[in-house]
Give the backbone structure.
Amino acid sequence: MKKVFLNEFSAFELKNMIQDEEIDSAITVFGSCESHGWHLPLGPDLFVPTEIARQAALRLSKTVVVPGVPFGTSLHYNHYPLSVTLRFETTIALAEDIFTSLIEHGIRRIVILNGHDGNIPALEIAARKVKDRFKDAVLVFVPAWWNITGARLADMFDVWNGLGHGGEGETSITMAVRPELVDVSLAERQVPEDVMALGSSPLSSGTSRRSRGRGRRATRRRRRWRRGSGCSGASPILSSIWFRIWRDEIGTMTTGKGERDLF
Ligand SMILES: [Zn+2]
């Protein structure tokens, strides 16, 4: 099997690959460690883009996948059990150092495959800072891979084109990547006003009486909803379509033909 992950190569192999110009591109992956509802593990934002990157790199030449960053900026999910969040400044510094290391070792084209919405501003700042220092490098930022895929599959989902956090799309694709970690029977339907009220969790600080009241009303509503109704459209078949779309997308980006968010 062809190796694609950077940390699976030896320094000796990489030295030869660089000398023979067999490597010039890298896909970097940024995830999160945060709640995705009761039915999913904390890690889809890492697991899914890592698998997309792996499948894309298998089809490409001269491309390695940098091991994904398992944490992201998840301030908005901090009140859920054991969410681990990085400050914006940390994510910026982490990404900047990863991009800089790659470029200083001869990588000229970097795809930034982000798996988590909270990372978007930090990754853009990091990419722009690095581009300012290395004007010849190409950085392709994919801030929200789910938007591109969701737009193509819009009619296949029941809710929000499948794009809700932990919703049909994300549940489907996690079922394909790590099926043993998904329990759809625990999925609950939620709508935006409830998501806003979740800030009233007892674990979060500084909540007002009004927001606590909103939270209690939201909790009562959620209890009335039928379990599993939020992910009725989730299926592993859909996820194989997502992967096909993404293999093609990344292929276009690393060959320099894409026009998406190039720095
Ligand atoms: Zn996610």
